[in-house]
Amino acid sequence: MRPRLRDRYFKRLLGYATRYKGLLALTIAMGVVGLALQFVIPWLIGSAIDQVIAPDWVRAGKAAPPSDAERLRRLWLLVGVGAATAVSFAVVFYIRGHYTVKLGNRLITDLRRDLFDHLQRLSLHFYSKERTGSIVARLINDIQQAGNLVNGGVILVIMDLLQTVVALGLLFWISWKLALACIGILPLYVFTFRYFNNRVRHASARVQDQISKLARLDGA
Length: 220
What we know:
mainly alpha, ABC transporter transmembrane region fold, 9 helices, 89% helix
């Protein structure tokens, strides 16, 4: 598919998603909250190392080392924060998954309704050339793939991109050397993506074509 035509179809698909701005905003908001919660666990691990495991090294020259009772109190505090984070992440993940599926079902319903209305307006000459099984395959399988693209593709890409930006910002704030070391593997990721992306897309197209052929045989 040509890039311009693909972009036009993608914009039309996003237009269906923006019909439900409330669900879309809630899904993205839960994704952002879940994204923030994912950074709490690494912070807890770092805090446990700095304040409990090796406080003498951290506080060298600044203050007297904390007592064992103080270390234990800090450890239990970190454990409590970790438990609350785990529960909050489970709740947020459930809410995001629930409303993502709800948004996807409404999107698929609108797509199938509009496509069905479009099929009703087509001429009899179209149905004399196309088999019923092929039309049904596009009405069911292709629209399902389109719904998965919006819910499982676009939203996840946005969340992953935002997570990457935040993580890089934190890494540069902690240590620019560590951040550069992490960025060093990005060219390998880009090469792998570009190498396998076309193959995966062509394989997916072949799968859809085979499904359409099977539907034609069933509908023949």
